[in-house]
Design a protein that fits this description.
alpha+beta, Nuclear Transport Factor 2, Chain: A, globular
């Protein structure tokens, strides 16, 4: 049988544990919302043809691993990659995460994308669908940035 002080200690620890797990769950849900919002902002920038607005959502040393191309590293390389697309095409992107998981200051998002490219010089549009994986890191200001962007076509 627990003495009153022992009961108080056990009760306090239980309440603290529940409180911490609720705060962790609330924080994780908030992080997932922020990651999803960032992904939507990247998608909007893609459809607007704004390479700089895409690149701002990547860390300075991020990796972009596009299909059939060597990996590119750095925010400037990310911007250059997308600018090369926008120089030739008007683009439309439909994209969403199927899964987002957060563990501390790291997270990943797994998703689906459909890209339609309309050649600026005229001609038939190009359509592709892909699956992708983003690895993200929480920054010192609390924002989430992509550290690795990997995809391949379906």
């Amino acid at each position: 049988m627990l003495k009153p002080i022992g009961f108080f200690i056990v009760l306090s620890m239980a309440l603290f544990s529940v409180s911490c797990s609720r705060n962790d769950t609330d924080e994780t849900a908030k992080d997932k919302e922020e990651i999803t919002a960032m992904s939507k902002a990247r998608g909007k920038a893609f459809t607007e043809g704004d390479a700089a607005a895409i690149a701002i959502h990547f860390t300075e040393d991020a990796y972009l691993m596009a299909p059939d191309k060597p990996a590119s590293q750095g925010r400037i390389a990310v911007q250059s990659y997308y600018q090369s697309i926008f120089d030739e095409y008007r683009a439309v992107l439909e994209s969403h995460y199927d899964e987002v998981e957060v563990s501390g200051k790291l997270a990943y998002g797994r998703g689906f994308a459909k890209v339609i490219l309309f050649p600026k010089a005229g001609g038939d549009s190009l359509v592709s669908t892909a699956k992708y994986l983003n690895i993200l890191k929480k920054q010192s200001d609390g924002s989430w940035k992509t550290t690795h962007d990997v995809w391949n076509s379906n």
